Amino acid sequence: MEKSTQASGVHYPHASRSARILHALLIFLLLSSLGVIFLAQYESRQAVSETENRRLAPWPELTQENLLDGSFARGIESYVADHFPLREYFTQVASFVRTNRGLTLDGRIVQVKGGDTGFEDINSWAKPKTGTDQDESPKEVGAEAEIALVTPGLDRESNASPEPLERAEGATGVQKSDTLSAQETAPQVNAVPQSTSPEVARSRETAPPSLTAQAAAPSNKPLNVVGGVLLHEGQALFMFGGTDKSAQGYANAVNTWVDQVAKPNNMQSVSVVVTPTSSHFYLPAAARARTTSEARNLEAMKLALNPEVRFADVITEMQDHTSEPMFFKSDHHWTGLGAYYAYRAWAQVMGLTPLELSAFDKRSVAGVAGSFWSLTQAPELRQADKVSDYYVPTTVTVKSTQYVGPEQKTPAPHEFFAEKSRGYIVFLGGDVPLLVGTTSAGTGRTALVVKNSYGNAFAPYLLPHFDKVVVVDYRYVFRNIQDIVKTFGVTDLVFVNATITANSGAHQERMRQVARGTSTAWQTEAEKRRIRQEEAAAAAAKSNSAPSQ
Q: Can the keyword Transmembrane helix be found in this entry's annotation (predicted)?
């Protein structure tokens, strides 16, 4: 027995060593194979993850500065993590495991940080160093999220804040916004009268009881419990928290365009299309104490606009179609159908006859799990939007061109519909800084659509009414707006937003910057610090080189 033990004691280390060598060889071969696949897929890599609904990390630019401070190495790490072979499949498996553990409760609320910027990482609004990435389509995503189980009927005036129980695990690759809130950045304007216009009065008479209750809710001050996203009956609903003051801030931004752009160029019209969120139509009565009134917010916005600005009554047009899919369930955007009803409201305020839906060719692409799913990883949202319908005008022919390059003046083909894409990216192919559609409408007029992502689904409906439809995303455009107006002969201005972004001070300030002719897109806080450091270093160098007295 002792000999057997000794024999095995002599033999076992050799077997273990061989096994370790074999394991190391297998791991080496596996990593080498993955490396070969990684390199082979380099040219075909996506810029946007449709599964995660976000822009993937690009290969970092090599400079002496980022090499020394370590940001180049971190950039490579982020790039490899985002483009790892079979990553989409691993992500889906991980999501399946996470979302099927424990019990899923209906009526839970997700606290969303950064909702005042419309689920966007505004740090991505900086001017690109070259024009090579202009054909990519950054997808809007949000900041961090916390899941909290909250009683929807919480007292409006309570100081109690929801207690976070679990950190959401799906909002990967998203940075926290450093921007001020809408209330902090909105400019001071004259107070809006508290009276209600005939249009809103009529809409209240015909609105369902839940809408009337929301419209009656006061919204002239921030509420401690406002905010978050409600997960209700398989749909995500944003808890709106805009105020009269933040609504007036958006009107001020539009008025800046009237004074700086429309009047100097003798434009024929300026119109505004701002849609409420899906919550205005679908939020249950028990949760309305957590929101402010979007109807009142839009009324405050309308009253603060210059008299010549035409304001589309989107709520009245949409409220008779609540049984139709006007909004995505897993995403904060509206659908192509929802944008169509907003188009009808715009046509009416413009004195035009809107085309019937039959005048458009209805087509569909596969849906995706949208921004709400990215933030919450809620299992009921993963397959909530099976398709994304879009409507192609049949009464006109269209030739589309985007403008790229260091000055956004180099033409490149780009369609109004990305028919090989999925989800909301089918509209304009994502957020393109400058896109022009030339049509056979023969109206002698050119529209300039000033928008964020909500305008992507809306802009195609204008094609039958204008010879040119020029689409500008105010977040990403840095070509001088006066140059754009004169180059394409713009005759009409159209603004398109949702209430969640229209009430954001960051969006409002960016709109004013573009109207005043800024030559750069949004500057991040990091970029501002870098510029200040360079200026300080230059001043110090100049001071040191100055001859002593």
A: yes
